[in-house]
Sequence to fold (291 residues):
Amino acid sequence: MAAPMELSCWGGDWGLPSLHPESLTVMAYAKFSGAPLTVNTISRSWRAPKGDVPVLRSEDIVISQPAKILNFLRKQKYNADYELSAKQGADTLAYIALLEEKLLPALLHTFWVEAENYCSVTKPWFSSRIAFPLSLYLPGKMSREALNRILLTRGGPPLYSLTEVEAQIYRDAKECLNLLSKRLGTSQFFFGDTPTTLDAFVFGFLAPIYKVCFPRVQLQEHLKQLPNLCRFCDDILTCYFRLTVSDPALIISLQMDDNLRKSPQHPPRKLTTLKLAAGGEESSPLNRLSP
Fold:
């Protein structure tokens, strides 16, 4: 009998199971691969004082960072990339690197650096889920870390001012969204009708941009001009995330089907109910998924 696996992560709102991109990525992958995770949303940060979530626990094993968690699940034979070719596997790594380089800085800026968004949405939301007195400190720490990460990757020559950096990261993010939209096309998922690791990462990055109600919505407005990416997020939320609230902590049970339990190399679930119409620790490339 497999050891139970528990995922600790930030909770959700605005129709999302989590507002945290890394948490969403792992939760989506677990759904796609059939991994039997019990997901506990964090309402007291004492269990993760550094904000190091998501965290997977299985017996005496504790793992953080999405790529490492996904690798652990794959070693347990919960493999969402079961049907991918070698070329598709290489494309997966390339697109994940693209997301981290081009989209993540703008995502961090939208949540943690843009003053109006941070003061009216991000800080109050996270503070309400963190135990006092850490609620007075941890959101500010997360905001400073986000800004430092942006400046570390985008703050060198020829971009010397924060205004120039902000303009560049949003140009890069919009270009990345356009590339993702072109790659997805009219397909259900990025490699056909079966969701994979790439779909989990794209969903984790896009869904918070798409759903969270911010006063400053530059990136969200651009995303909503790409209907296939919006439909991609909506389809995953509708078909894979039917939340069941069993207590105030919003414990979400991600249980596999019996037929997946019996499989020695659990193939990913296929989404058969939707037909698309024609139309329109950090996670980094160094922490890549093993082949």
Observations:
- Residues 244-291 have pLDDT under 50 and may be disordered.
